[in-house]
Amino acid sequence: MARSEKEKMLAGELYHAGDPEIQADAEATKAWLVRYNASLALAPAERRQLLIERLAEVGSDAVIRPPFFCDYGTNIALGANVFLNFNCIILDVVRVTIGEGTQIGPMVQILTADHPRDPAIRRSGLEFGRPISIGRNVWIGGGALIMPGVTVGDDAIIGAGSVVTRDVAPGATVVGNPARPVRGAAAG
Fold first, then answer.
1. Does the predicted model carry a pTM greater than 0.90?
2. DSSP labels for 118-178?
3. Cα Rg for the chain, rounded, in angstroms?
4. Which residues are registered as beta bridge partners of 146?
5. SS3 state of residue 61
6. DSSP label at 62?
7. Comparing C-alpha atoms, which of 85, 96, 97 is closest to residue 143?
8. Tens of pLDDT along 45-102?
9. Is the pLDDT of residue 184 over 80?
10. Which residue range or ranges hold the Maltose/galactoside acetyltransferase domain (predicted)?
11. Which residues, 6+ apart, have CB-to-CB distance to 125 below 8 Å?
12. Element (H, E) at 83
C-alpha cells in the first residue's frame, strides 16, 4: 500500500507539501496560532492549556511567549521548564525535541524543513525534513538559527545570531555563521 504524503513527511522522505491532508493540518495550526498569539495577557495556566492542545508534548512549567510561529505544532516536544522567548519560529515538518531546562532567546528559528539540492527535483515541488534534537539545559541566544538535522548536546551554549549547521557537542559553546566552537569556553 502506498504511503500518504503526510506519512512520507513525518518519515523525513520527499513529499508534496500541497497535499490536501497536509494542508488541512496547516490550516488547523493557523487557527490555533491565532488563538495562541492572542493569549499574551492570559494567565500562564491558560496559555499552557493552549500549548497542550496542539503540541506533541509539553513538560511541566514549559513556557512559550507569544507571538510564536510553527508549521504544525504536533511535531514539537518540550521538556519540563523549557522557555521560548518572543517571536520564535519552529518549522516542524518532522520531530523537534527540546530538553528540559533549555532557554531559548527571542527570534530564534528552529528549521527542520529542507529542500532537494537537485534543481529538477526541487522544481517538482518535493521537499523533506530532518529532525532537530536540542538537549537539556541548553542556552540559545536571540536570533540564532538551528538548521535541519542538527543535534545540540546537553549544557551547550549557542551565541546570539549564530547559524548552527552542524551538531553541537554536549557542554560546547558555539558562535558565528556558521557556528564554530569557542576554544576554552566553559558551558556554565
1. yes
2. SHHHHHTTEEEE--EEE-TT-EE-TT-EE-TT-EE-TT-EE-TT-EE-S-B-TT-EEETTT
3. 17
4. 110, 164
5. coil
6. -
7. 85
8. 999 999 999 999 999 999 999 999 999 999 999 999 999 999 999 999 999 999 999 9
9. no
10. 6-60
11. 16, 17, 18
12. strand 83-84
Question: Could you say which of 6, 48, 115, 180 is catalytic?
Answer: 115
Non-local (6+) Cβ contacts of 168 within 8 A are 150, 151, 152, 153, 156, 158, 174, 179
**Is 82 within 8 Å of 97 (Cβ atoms)?**
no
Domain residue limits, the chain: 5-181
Cell (9 digits) for 42: 492570559
> Scanning the structure block, which residue is given the C-alpha cell 500500500?
1
- pLDDT of residue 148 exceeding 60, the answer is yes
CA distances from 166 to 68, 85, 146, 162 (A): 25, 23, 9, 12
| Level-2 CATH architecture, domain 5-181 | 3 Solenoid (2.160)
115 is catalytic: yes
